Amino acid sequence: MFKFSKKMVALATAISLGVGVPAAPAAEAFSIGDAIGIGVAGAQIAAARKQAMAQADKEIKYYNETEEGRYALLEKFKEQYGVETDYELNQRMDNMMASLTEAVAKVDPSIREKPYIYFVNSQESFNAFCAMGHVMSVNAGAFRFVANDDELAAVVGHEMTHGQKNHTASSVRRNINHAVNAAAAGAVLGGIVGSLTSNIALVHANAHNSKKDEKEADEGAFIYITHSNYNPGACAAIWQRMLEKYGNNDQHGIDLLLGPSDHPNHGARRDKYEKSLYEYSGKHVHVKDGKVTVNGKDFAQVAPDAGMSGAERAYFVQGNLAAAYKNGHNKSEAYVQDGTVMLGAQPIIKPVKGDESADVLAQRLNSIK
Ligand SMILES: [Zn+2]
Question: Given a cut of 50, is residue 18 above it in pLDDT?
Fold first, then answer.
């Protein structure tokens, strides 16, 4: 899904604006040497472009802001990508959207006025998207790719930032504007406007967010997740997982989420989230190569578990420690409860085979925290 290259996107956009529209004969308007003719044609083209954009803005507003348009878009996407009926996946999606909606509302109450409408689509690749109108979809394959729903929440939080910041509608408008400006004079005069209505979904589906928008979406995901009950370490963990499964620069899988190839690679995005976690912990907790350090001192080399490598799982330990510091649990003693190392009320790590024992880790944490 959304595997169009940038070039193909431009082409698709151009086609959707141009095909089927008979080009008006422009020759006479452009006859060489006819200075007045050129002037008139120039003004006509400018007016036609303005009209095309006014029509586009009307269309965008319909899909982005009206309930009728939002639901029309939802139906188009359901038709295009199929609807996953698996009960468990849909339950997970419902729970996640409810949790993340609450989290987003804490920082951006406008979500109450335009709640997300969503579905799990039946595609097997790892992808998720947020269209205009807060229309959201997550591939069934994404649920199967992640180690847990915290990681999926990091992905969906990224998409919800695109929604909250109106990135998609803006990029659709940019695409259309670019196509209108690039179109031949004949096509402009012939009426670019007419074909928008039937093709806006296509224009939308292939809209690419800018590099700046992608950066903002990554940052937004972290902000939202730290206002939820999900582990904030999941943001770094999912990119560690991507790195391990697909390599550092491979564009396989989630094109929209990954963004075009000029985006930071998986490792860079992971490291940026690690830095955010470090800041969030009050500069107490770091992770590198599966090793967790507290105040610059070794705490634990994390073992693999639950389908995660040690490196991936370590970010969840960092997320727990960061939350403990953020919420003041570090003022309490570390102890062991039912096999889990606790810091105050915050669970930190439940050791598995390959980890050091909970008693050893709790003792060490007390000596370095
Ligand atoms: Zn994105």
Answer: no
